[in-house]
Amino acid sequence: MKLNVILSGVFALLLTSVCLAQEGSIKNDFKPSSSNQPGQEYPQVNSQGYARFKIFAPKSDSVKVSLGLGGRGGTKLSKNSEGFFTGTTEGPMDEGFHYYHLTVDGGTFNDPGALNYYGSVRWESGIEIPAHDAEFYALKNVPHGNVQQILFPSKSTNTSRRAFVYTPPGYNKNTSTRYPVLYLQHGWGEDETAWMNQGNANLIMDNLIAEGKTKPFIIVNTYGMTNEVKWGKMKEFSIVPFQTVLIEELIPYVDANFRTVANQANRAMAGLSMGGMETHTITLNRPDVFAYYGLLSGGTYNSSEIKDKNVVKLIFLSCGSKENPNRVKTAAEELKKAGINAVSYVSENTAHEFLTWRRSLRELAPMLFQK
After folding, report:
1. How many other CB atoms sit within 10 Å of the CB of residue 110?
2. How far apart are CA 10 and CA 149, in angstroms?
3. Any bridge partners for residue 152, and if so which?
4. Which sequence spans correspond to the domains of the chain?
5. 189 CB neighbour count, 10 Å cutoff
6. CB contact at 8 A, 249 and 241
7. What are phi and psi of 293, to 5 degrees?
8. So which residues are the signal peptide here (predicted)?
9. E strands present in the chain
10. Is domain 135-367 given the CATH code 3.40.50.1820 in the classification?
């Protein structure tokens, strides 16, 4: 019994030492996240990628942040005598954007200090962990394009539907110039706001165009109707309603109301995650509509699926290095051996998350509409 007590005491001292050492290794250079509500000090992030939270909930007993290391159940916050719950993630987070929410006494709430983004089929809090390569999606002093909301008629759904359209810098001045179009889809749980809000697609394009790295083109984002099937039942998803909206309603509207080059050779479709699945199915169903295909953490193509390789100008496959990079690389090689222009891209040190997809768009854009 005495030996057990002694060993328990030694273990406790060792555990305390480890915790103190870990705490001491965290740099105290925390700053408010760039995705905070105006004037809000928390949440904060440091140069190592740790996130720190502070929530005022004096009448609550428990506050936990869903953000945390995988499989650890998030970050549990500790309450002080003034009613503030505080805590720091157990380890550094992946660079880039992350959704999160609070669990307060068993209920789900957003962080009042953070901006909200539509993901996980709800408006979630969002946090930006500083990325070493964030310059490519930063707001810079360069000519900017315009992002506008449009409402287009949809007979198939008996309503007006919404889309966001990015037009490149100079669109409103060069009124004789026509532009190719990329139809860019969100993932499950998200909507048509995702690519411009979470993805910074407009800033990525502005910066690439300013640097002369890509041909200017229009980007269109619309709701892919993906959230109408529950997670885990994706095999029940039917592409038919969305394909009808996209091909028969949205594309004709965009071609009629924007200065597009309205042909297959100047039209691309790409999507992240489930939006990639939609891209895969629709491009195979309607190769007469799109010449450029992009799957961003959204599966792969194989050469047997491509019935006429002469109408496909590019297949772009990407994912994060923490996903399944070998599958993406192998698929691209197989397509190339079959005589199809295919490119793979792997985002280093990222998983199924927006930095993967931001980087993927940066790589994809310069390849589009070059032939």
Report:
1. 16
2. 63
3. 161
4. 26-130, 135-367
5. 18
6. no
7. -120, 140
8. 1-21
9. 31-32, 44-45, 51-56, 63-65, 75-76, 78-79, 84-88, 96-100, 102-104, 107-109, 116-119, 122-129, 146-154, 159-167, 181-185, 218-222, 267-272, 292-296, 314-320, 342-347
10. yes
Q: How far apart are CA 191 and CA 370, in angstroms?
A: 29
Q: pLDDT (tens digit, 9 = 90+) per residue, 352-365?
A: 999 999 999 999 99
CATH architecture of the domain with range 26-130: Sandwich (2.60)
Distance CA 287, CA 307 (A): 9
- Asked whether the beta carbons of 123 and 227 are under 8 A apart, the reply is no
Q: Kindly list the distances between the CA atom of residue 254 and the CA atoms of 18, 151, 191, 218, 241, in Å, as whole numbers in the listed order.
A: 59, 11, 19, 10, 19
| pTM of the full structure | 0.91
State how far the Cα of 368 lies from the Cα of 315, in Å rounded to an integer.
10
| CB-CB contact of 295 with 316 (8 Å) | yes
pLDDT digits (tens, 9 = 90+) for 173-229: 988 999 999 999 999 999 999 999 999 999 999 999 999 999 999 999 999 999 888
Whether 124 and 160 have beta carbons less than 8 Å apart is answered as no
Pairing of the two strands 63-65 and 159-167:
unpaired
Residue 292 · residue 269 · CB < 8 Å: yes
